Amino acid sequence: xxxxxxxxxxxxxxxxxxxxxxxxxxxxxxxxxxxxxxxxxxxxxxxxxxxxxxxxxxxxxxxxxxxxxxxxxxxxxxxxxxxxxxxxxxxxxxxxxxxxxxxxxxxxxxxxxxxxxxxxxxxxxxxxxxxxxxxxxxxxxxxxxxxxxxxxxxxxxxxxxxxxxxxxxxxxxxxxxxxxxxxxxxxxxxxxxxxxxxxxxxxxxxxxxxxxxxxxxxxxxxxxxxxxxxxxxxxxxxxxxxxxxxxxxxxxxxxxxxxxxxxxxxxxxxxxxxxxxxxxxxxxxxxxxxxxxxxxxxxxxxxxxxxxxxxxxxxxxxxxxxxxxxxxxxxxxxxxxxxxxxxxxxxxxxxxxxxxxxxxxxxxxxxxxxxxxxxxxxxxxxxxxxxxxxxxxxxxxxxxxxxxxxxxxxxxxxxxxxxxxxxxxxxxxxxxxxxxxxxxxxxxxxxxxxxxxxxxxxxxxxxxxxxxxxxxxxxxxxxxxxx
Length: 483
Known about the structure:
Layout: H1 2-23, E1 30-32, E2 35-37, E3 42-43, H2 45-48, E4 50-57, H3 67-83, E5 90-94, E6 98-104, H4 110-117, E7 122-128, E8 140-141, E9 162-163, E10 169-171, E11 187-188, E12 196-197, E13 200-201, E14 205-212, E15 218-224, H5 228-238, E16 243-248, E17 251-254, E18 257-258, E19 266-273, H6 275-286, E20 294-302, H7 304-333, H8 335-358, E21 361-362, H9 364-393, H10 398-434, H11 437-469
Parallel strand pairs: 3-21, 8-12, 10-18
Antiparallel strand pairs: 1-2, 4-6, 4-20, 5-6, 7-13, 7-16, 9-11, 10-19, 14-15, 15-19, 16-17
Helix pairs in contact: 1-8, 1-11, 7-8, 7-9, 8-9, 8-11, 9-10, 9-11, 10-11
């Protein structure tokens, strides 16, 4: 029996050492080979400041919007903002036509709002030998997709453009070519037709990602699905040197020239890209299509001053609360209370480390859930110690009294924790369904705290009790206990 608890104690010490390392302020994180894990504390919008945006479906009231469409739009928006480097954001569907977006710590809001507002009708429009500059608005007709370009030539601009700079190029990534300079073409046409026909849409894209070419310049690799693969192969084979505009919501975002035939369904957009400009274009290619149009109905900036004040007050409240609990346990149970306080400190450190490791975004309600979970952790110790006092009064030895007390207290500990977990699940579902992110934060931290408190009661408290009290005799040290 003693050997088993010695093994438990050694395991607890190893885990506690890892926990304390994770909890260190300014922890650099874990970087092993290609594995990188950030261990910084992530603060929510109410603590860190940032931006809250309310998006609404931009459709007439008669148009039915399904829950699946809203969830798909939420996922696409999450991918867009994550790919832009806006981390720790949250998107939640509220009602039947709205999405709430929160961006903690965000200062430059214009780029994020603009990319979220885009409906994302992505099209590839042949321009012939007359390129147009990025940002040019054109009317695109998608009624003749995958039609050979020769049948669309009457709609191309007849004028000869004047070149004022280099243009991006489209090429087969397996070929070696000198990359062209200029992320956006600065070519202009003297006349524009009223309508351009799209060769294909973003639905024909399978993937798009930023990589580097053989000379280290940023490029965008893309792959196509059928029938876009066949259409693109036919177009690029017959129109090397021509321009193909990439158009999002009727606005040209790039108009690279075709540098070589692309017949394998995978190609490369090269130019004088920076990482940011290449990544932005790749995002627009990957997540260009939203299932429903959205509009921003409210944008609110949240200041960080109030958040810092909340953090300070939360820290004071947590320290005071933990100190009062420890004082109560020591006065009520004396030596067992001291042991429970050590277990409680282990619980608090482990909870914080787990929050950092799995990336929980702490909000003010989330901190409240964590503080409340401390009380739940104390409940288990109180149940064990009350049973221990009863067994000691019945004349049992300490070793036997600890085991019997734990066994008899376990059903109550288990049932109380299960009911709290069920409440957390219901609260999380409620917050997810109605866009109440503060409720979700509270439920998440309370749920994690309850699970850790249960593990602490099963292993840590019981192990500490045996290691400290097994060799004591209750009759020789009655003042160390409160029977």
